User: What shape does this take?
Amino acid sequence: MKVLLISPGWPKGRLWGELSFKFPSLSLAAIAAVTPLEWEVALCDDSFEQVDFDTDADLIALTAMTPQAPRAYEIAAAFKSRGKTVVMGGFHASNLPDEALTHVDAVVVGEGEVVWPRLLADFCTGSIQPVYKPDAMISMADIPFARREIFKGKDYLLTNTVQTTRGCPFDCEFCSVTAFYGRNYRKRPVEQVLAELQSLKKTNSFVFFVDDNIVADRKYALPLFQGMKGMGFKWLSHAPIDFAADRELLRAAGESGCYGMFVGFESLSQETLAAMGKVTNRAQSFMADARAFRDNGIGILGSFVLGNDGDTPEIFPKLLRFCEEARLESAIFPLLTPYPGTAVRRRLEAEGRIISSDWRDYDMEHINFQPRGMTIQQLQEGYDWLNRSFYSFPSMYRRLFKMHRSVQVFGPMNLGFRAAIRRKRCGA
Assistant: This one.
């Protein structure tokens, strides 16, 4: 028996579809790892290779985030018209299983490792069920090493993606992580993570930890970083800005090879931060916190959500000034997006402010709700201006001119974002 795992591509003409550097789907490698050995497993990444709709695979399995869902449904329809059985999992299908079931034969809701072998067994007996949902979340000690051989020969920047924790102890209004994993912060045993890293040393010196908050539990993170010291990895992950306050842990991360962190600043307004539930952020210390990261060799990919109720057109130049003065190595500026399953969607629906549920436009680049502090046009134009300005050569020089070890990561990243933004504008 053969299963074809498919990661739907992002549409061209969108920022994430135009980026030249691609990362693999760790979730599909995790599903491959719990697939019984009698099954042959193949992977297709629709973002850079054509889908073989005439494949001899017996079962087609899709995963998708919300903006990828329409493409996933198109792929599913093409396979179903050829008589194939199609199943789907991931964030979007987990939040809207009834919608997904109008396009596929079965939906996996939530974490798939526990129920995936049962789905395959049911398929073999012709008794596949419409919904598969685990009775409980998987024990983190039972998560096997990802089956990364499915990435072989693919056009990925790197394949060393690793997960050490799941969930987040916080509950930000706009975040879909807690809707999927819950607020229970679960951790793989440190020794298992270190053993997995040891097995990856020969493939690439760079590692990306996909954790949403790798430092939420310092009693876990500190021995992990100490165990990684001397392994020779250069790694990146996600951490909150208040990580800077724990200088021992910050130093341990830097010494273990951390070259960069994705950091959700989200807003420069403390009132806005409180409204969105970002309880750990203190706007008045952002500048000093960014300096602490840099002093430990850790660059920052900052994230600032645009379109909050307190935002006005003045926010765009203010954000640019802050990013340049703080010398943030890179940044993204997502438009507030009311994803299914999030608290912000429930609030905006209750207020009658959702103006579109075209999932293609839920890419953090398009406005799907009625903002309060500015018009839709002002918000869209401000978003476009901020991205162009931040990734202009003068801004890149102001932020990156002083050599820092993280520049080897963030220099190419800046050029990649700049090129994607230019391609997006040319295709508009």
User: Anything to note?
Assistant: The chain is about 35% helix and 15% strand. Residues 57 and 354 are 40 Å apart (CA to CA). The two ends are 44 Å apart (CA to CA). The domain at 160-427 is CATH 3.80.30.20 (pyruvate-formate lyase- activating enzyme).
